[in-house]
Design goal:
alpha/beta; 8-stranded mixed beta sheet; globular; 434 residues; 21 helices
Amino acid sequence: MNVTGIIAEYNPFHNGHAFHIEETRKNTDADYCIAVISGDFVQRGAPALLSKYDRTKMALENGIDLVIELPVIAATSSAENFAQGGVCLLNALGVVSHISFGAEANTSTDIDLLGRLADFFSFEPPAFQKYLEQALKSGCSFPTARREAALICLQQTDADSTDNNTLARFEQLLASPNNILAIEYMKAIRRHNCKLTPSVVTRTGAGYHDADTNTELASASALRKFIFQDNICQKNDSDTLNQMLTRTVPDSVRELLLTAYENHTFLQEDDFSNLLYYELHRQLLHPTASNSNIDYSDLTQRIANKLESFTCWSAFIADLKTKNQTYTAISRYLLHALLGINAELLTAAKNCHYAPYARILGFRKDASPLLKNLQEYSQIPLLRKIAKERQALTPDQQKLLDLDIYAADLYNRILFTKSGVQRKNEYREPLIIL
């Protein structure tokens, strides 16, 4: 049995994802494809556009055989921990031979360079931290500082990197969010000795930050921007939305998204503004070990100073942003505060490489041989009915599962407040089976 894993968010699923799955099956000769997806909150520190069950259905209808939830503590972490969680989870299933991901890498040389960058970041030379700190102090954001420090070290330590063309290509590769994730996947494989063979699919169409939706291969961020920032929801313009979705997503996804639009079930950061305000206020007034996400850092001080003028989540981040802290990093910090992710939970996650269990969200009926193999070979608990299976977990695994359940409860409560749609709780929500 040949099984390939994909780590994704599908927020929402679009034609580019369908292309990636199709190419993955060709490149790896996969009998089955497993997707590990973020749950109700995603890596940029925000709620998912739609619930994890809706996005599971999208994936299963468009080429994925089995969907597993990436625990929220990994799904809302830095690229390094996000990748570590997904890679280690796939590896621990015991049946996955390949991991497939997209990258802005057009040639075999580019893929080799990504591998060299993964080697570099897996075992950073001592000088790297020095150059990183210098770049941060100069006012660079962390991604920019990391890129600059790496390029200096590569030029000094790698004779093959002193060529100006190679250095320029390294710089270009490190400027792409998708390439950064690709490098992190490769790095996680190396650091944890995972038995996974990388398979790179060259991304085509719009880039990660490209807002163009006048293309068949628009990005997920472009779709979300079209829905929210272009005020499609406020304009009550279903025809315009339908036209855009007809170009950019598979038909089954278009129908699901149009239904969500009609039912007002799209969620974004600002829908959680009041909850965030109350939680930040509580933690700042009553700091304890249990809410130690709020510490005495520069960011914490800015939060304390500016909380009085809080209006909404997105505006607050814009108010807090500085040259060397990105919007996404601040949003993740605030989300962790909202969810109560503290040092104790982070330690529990790190101890299991952010992969404490494999919670199944859905599968295709014809993937029953895959499920049978998982039950035989998985090195971590497989969760299908958590009310029963929770008791068999270790205390740390239980804490992380409880965090996933709490995150879903928050998401579902805001969904109900906004739309009137009431979902079953995590103990009673059935798997998506097609």
